[in-house]
TrEMBL record:
Polymerase/histidinol phosphatase N-terminal domain location: 2-66
Protein name: Unannotated protein
Pfam families on file: PHP
Source lineage: unclassified sequences, metagenomes, ecological metagenomes
Molecular function, one GO term: 5'-3' RNA exonuclease activity
SUPFAM superfamilies recorded: PHP domain-like
Length: 281
């Protein structure tokens, strides 16, 4: 089984990179993508956990904003981790997250919701890329909501009055940097309507021109009709179709390998990188 989109405690997951790989092994995953938000910090630890039964695809999920303000996530896979431009883009995105978090907390407090940056820092693992899931965890810890999913459904979705965007590359810019770093670019859950604003089919023309390699079609936040439309778009543009769990550990419903990528599709995607960077033992 091939699961190309998972998260560890180096961003907003609840499993360490080592534990993440072990859970993937237990679930029967044979190819695992570790794609923490705007970070490659978990790569080294994840590598120490691999066994002959599993290979590791190193990557990152890059936070993007379209020119008209729609939040988009781009999976960069198999890029050179030492590429300076790539690491600078990830660092710049991480640096904007704390001011963003403070603003969201300010908006919540203005409506009488008792939450603070200290509450968020208390639940966020040391060194993690701060994000909305950590704010959700703080809300759970204080008994304001029952789960991460409830927090996102009621308070933290993209169209919520408490949502604040942060400085980020456009999807085209992110794809361009990923490709210059030798990697491949897959747009994550582009039609995930339950998250708020989504892309429209016409958006993919510019992404294709920038070097987009694939579309994450099979994802729990995209319904059957959305997945069908995305499959048709991918086929029409000769893009790879992927499926992934977007696993974060406890607090979210996503199960490891609940959606997977077909081996033939993965073979096409891997071949588009400028070097073989899959980690094996």
């Amino acid at each position: 089984m091939i699961d190309l989109h998972t998260h560890s405690t180096c961003s907003d997951g609840t499993d360490t990179p080592f534990a993440l790989v072990k859970k993937a092994l237990a679930a029967g995953v044979t190819t695992l993508g570790i794609t923490d938000h705007d970070s490659t910090a978990g790569w080294s630890e994840a590598i120490t956990a691999i066994q002959p039964q599993i290979q590791l695809v190193l990557g990152a999920e890059i936070s993007c904003l379209t020119t008209d303000g729609v939040s988009v996530h781009m999976l960069g896979l198999l890029f050179d981790g030492e590429h300076k431009e790539m690491q600078q883009m990830l660092e710049d995105s991480r640096d904007t997250r704390i001011p963003r978090m403070r603003k969201m907390i300010e908006l919540l407090r203005a409506d009488g919701i008792d939450i603070s940056i200290e509450d968020v820092n208390r639940v966020a693992p040391t060194g993690s890329t701060l994000g909305r899931p950590h704010l959700a965890d703080a809300l759970v810890a204080k008994g304001i909501v029952a789960s991460r999913d409830e927090a996102f459904l009621d308070l933290l979705h993209n169209e919520s009055k408490y949502y604040v965007s942060h400085a980020a590359p456009t999807p085209v810019e992110a794809i361009s940097v990923i490709r210059r770093a030798g990697g491949v670019a897959v747009i994550a859950h582009p039609f995930a309507s339950r998250r708020g604003e989504i892309l429209v089919p016409e958006s993919f023309t510019d992404l294709l021109a920038a070097g987009l390699n694939g579309i994450e079609v099979h994802h729990r936040d995209q319904n059957a009709q959305e997945q069908k439309v995305l499959t048709d778009i991918a086929r029409g543009l000769n893009l790879v179709v992927t499926g992934s769990s977007d696993y974060h550990g406890t607090g979210k419903l996503n199960s490891m390998a609940e959606n997977t990528t077909h081996p033939a599709q993965w073979e096409m995607l891997e071949s588009a990188a400028n070097a073989r960077r899959v980690i094996t033992v």
